[in-house]
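haha ok so turns out i had the wrong file open the whole time. this is the CORRECT one, sorry everyone. sequence first:
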Amino acid sequence: MRMNLITAGGANLVFARFIINGVAATTLHFSVLTVLIECVHVSSAGLANGIASMFGMAASYMGSKFFVFESADPMAKTLPRFLIIYAMVAVLHVFVLSIWTDVWKLHYPIGFFIATAGAMVLTFLANRFFVFSGSRVASMAHQRDGG
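then structure:
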């Protein structure tokens, strides 16, 4: 039996699941980034981050759809929305890390985590209110609020 996310902690549980999913996706993203920089010797941290972000985005989408928001909406609806949001966030992330590392010559892990913190807030709000707005979680919130 699935837990009712609204009555069992509501937004706090959804946000906790978002954090768990985000940590997993970010770990994959950072691992690929590290391999590209340290082992493959990609000379630009910005380029390596752009490549690595694709791995993180794929993990984030799957976790968001099936674990965080429990969306029954078809991928044909949610995936394009997700890709639009994450493409914008990825460009922002690449820009921040490029400036941090390639221009300012600072160590990439710190820049990565600064960019990721900003991306976390943006992606939660975009996923909750745009990408998966028709999800089970959104429907329960709407019913709870008397909509």
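Residues 1-8 have pLDDT under 50 and may be disordered.
again sry for the mixup
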